Amino acid sequence: MQDKRRLLLKSVLGFTAMVAAVTVMPKLAMAKWSKAFDVESMDEALNDLYGSNELITDDRITFKIPEIAENGAVVPVSVKTDIPNVRTISIFADKNPQPLAASFKIPEGTEANISVRIRLGETMIVKAVVEADGKLYTTEKEVKVTIGGCGG
Amino acid sequence: MKVKAKMKKELVIVKVLAKHPMETGMRKDKKTDELIPAKYIQELICKHQDKVVFEANFGRAVSKNPYVAFSFKGGQPGDTLSLTWVDNTGETKAVEATIK
C-alpha cells in the first residue's frame, strides 16, 4: 500500500515537473530579448538594458546616418568605434514609440563595427550607445525625415 | 535569409539580408482598418564553429527585410557560419554560409 502511494506520488510529481519544464522553456528561450525594447522612454530603456542611464559623450565613435532621410522606413545606420573592450552597441531613436531600435552583442574577436537599417517615424535625434568596461559612451545625430517610416 | 561572408585580410566580413515583414503591430490594414498583428525578428545569432561571433537584438524599429553587417577575426575561407533568427511569434529560420 505504502509503496503504491509513493509510486503514485512520484509519477504525479514527475509529470508536474515535466509540464513545468515544458511551459517554462519557451520563456527562458525568449528571455534574452530584453524588455527594454517595449518601454516608451529612452532613460527607462537604458536602465532596463544596462542598469544605468549615465551616458558619456565620446568622439571615438564614428556614427554614420543620413542627415536627411527621404524615406523614414529605411534609414541606413552604421556604428564603428576604436574604444577598447566593447561589449555591446545599441541604437536609440528618441521619438519613436519605443526608442530602442536595435542592440548588438560584440563578443571578443568581433569588430566594434556594425551596420543596420532602421525606421524613423519623424525628424529626431538618433543615438549610438557603446558599452565598454562597464561604461556607456554615446554620440548622437539629428535626422530630418521627409516621409515617416511608421505609416501604413 | 541571404548571407555573404568574405575574407578581407584577417577579417571575415558578413552581410545578412533576412526576409521578414517586420510588422510593428501599430500599422493598420488599409482595407479592413484593423491593426496588423506585430511580427518582427527579435534575435539574430551568427555562430562560427560553435562560437557566437555576433548577436543582434531587434525592436520594431528595424526596417522590413532586415539588413545587418558585421565582421570578426578567426575565420578561414571554407569555414561554415550558421545563422539563426527568431521572431516574436516563435517562428525561426536557420541557414549556413561558407566563408569565401
Question: What would you say this structure looks like, in words?
Answer:
The complex is a heterodimer of chains A (152) and B (100). Chain A has 152 residues and is of the alpha+beta class. Helices cover 25% and strands 39% of the residues of chain A. Chain A contains two helices and nine strands; from the N terminus they run ααβββββββββ. In chain A, the strands form two sheets. In chain A, strands 1, 3, 5, 6, 8 and 9 form a six-stranded mixed sheet that branches. In chain A, strands 2-4-7 form a three-stranded antiparallel sheet, with no helix packed on it. In chain A, strand 8 and strand 9 form a beta hairpin. The longest helix of chain A is centred in the first third of the chain and has 29 residues. In chain A, 33% of the residues are buried. About 5% of the residues of chain A have low confidence. Chain B is mainly β and 100 residues long. Chain B has one domain: Immunoglobulin-like, CATH 2.60.40.10. In chain B, the strands form two sheets. Chain B has a four-stranded antiparallel sheet, with no helix packed on it. In chain B, strands 1-2-5 form a three-stranded antiparallel sheet, with no helix packed on it. In chain B, strand 6 and strand 7 form a beta hairpin. The two termini of chain B are 17 Å apart. The model of chain B has no long low-confidence stretch (mean pLDDT 96). The interface between A and B is large, with 38 and 35 residues.
